[in-house]
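W.,

You were right to be curious about this one. When I first looked at the sequence I had no strong expectations either way, so I just let the prediction run and decided to look at it fresh. Below is the sequence, 147 residues in total, followed by the output.
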Amino acid sequence: MRRLILWGTAIVVIGGVAVWALQAQEQQANPPAQPAATTQTPVAPAGPETVAFTFTDETQMQQFAQVWGQRQGVLTRMAVLQAYWNQEQSGLTQLNQELLSKYNLDVNKNYTLDTDRKALVEQPLTPEQIAAQTAGATPATDQPATP
């Protein structure tokens, strides 16, 4: 159910980015007509305005808009992936707590399931697991108990 909600959210966000990109393309293809001169004086900006870049032509501005749109798409996908990562981390923490409370298992240790004896048997860590633990990673949390 959580994954369906996450995928639905991702689709809505990506759809919104797509609509924004299409609107930007339409505005570039059909520039708005210049409004008639008004009698009001323009409002001065709050502070000194700094021009970061000046485009030489319309093509260069369209290229920028395309790159900027791609960047926004990447940021959106990264936000969705971050939310998914956080959700999975939360689920893993809950599973680790359940393993500790129900079965008194240390998730940093290596276990095998002996189905004949109906028992979990603690195995010595492999050299790779020891190296990973000393480096700060805990690969044993990513591996289920093997039968």
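Here's what jumped out at me. The CA atoms of residues 103 and 120 lie 9 Å apart. And, maybe more interesting for your project: The two ends are 29 Å apart (CA to CA).

Coffee later to discuss?

I.
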